[in-house]
Amino acid sequence: MEIKAADVAKLRKMTGAGMMDCKNALTEANGDFERAQEIIREKGKLIAAKRSDRTASEGVVVSQIVGNKGYMLCLACETDFVAKGDEFGAAAKAFLAEAVAMDAADVEALTAKIGEKATELSGKTGEKVEVAHYSRIEAPMCISYIHMNNKLGTLIGFDKTIDEQVAKDVAMQAAAMAPVSISENDCPKEVIETEHKIGMEQARQEGKPEQMLEMIANGKVKKFLSENTLVNQALVKDNKKTVATYLAENGGANVVAYKRFSLND
């Protein structure tokens, strides 16, 4: 049967699929719109399955603050070309809106909700599409920062409301300096143990006396924590003070939540 251009355009509007995909689906379905939509969805699933072993190393990071909660999501794909497309960016924001609406606790809960839509997007783009990261925080004050390349973002939660620019400075600090934790108190035990072992081995390789190795390793761990935990880091905009000092001087808030994600890490 003849497939009219208006019907192709109608199906494209309904599914977001390409013009040729819509025409082919309508042809196969003999003009049945419901069946044509099923064909397009099936094609999306097939493409997603074929691309499942590919690396989705491009994408966009989006965030949203709603009251005392902060949300951040990264929708990933295979190429920068797709990632920079308006439709892909809109999909990332739509998926984030779904996460906010359901107040998703983790990426598994979110994927269970929007997994089918991600598969459909994979069919449209012809690339692997996945939620590469999702995080949620809750605190009396939350702020987010998304770097200009849309591939790096942070969420920071404070125990009280402070000046928004001060809060943003801390969020940008976390983006730039990639701290492993808020402070030494929440630094993963295995990270500290690894740094201690490295310190011991370095001191041993340098020929330091055996009785001094523990002290030297502890010193290296202390230095590592001062450089790699958020509140102990030197402030990027004024390296004469730490982030903790900066906060103490500007409202006295404590950082109680921290998330960071970068596609480039």
Task: Explain what you see.
A hairpin with a 5-residue loop joins strand 4 (141-146) and strand 5. Among the domains are: 5-50, Orthogonal Bundle (Helicase, Ruva Protein, domain 3); 52-138, Tetrahydropterin Synthase, Chain A (2-Layer Sandwich); 188-228, GTP Cyclohydrolase I, Chain A, domain 1. It is elongated and about 85 Å long. The chain is an alpha+beta fold and 265 residues long. The strands form three sheets. Strands 1-2-3 form a three-stranded antiparallel sheet. It has a three-stranded antiparallel sheet with strand order 4-5-8. It has a two-stranded antiparallel ribbon with strand order 6-7. Helix 2 (19-28) crosses helix 3. It contains ten helices and eight strands. The termini are far apart.
Q: Which SSEs are present, and which pair or pack?
A:
Elements (H helix, E strand, L loop, with lengths): L4 H11 L3 H10 L4 H18 L7 E9 L2 E9 L2 H4 L2 H17 L4 H19 L4 E9 L2 E6 L5 E7 L5 H14 L11 H17 L7 H16 L5 E2 L2 E5 H7 L5 E8 L3
Antiparallel strand pairs: 1-2, 2-3, 4-5, 5-8, 6-7
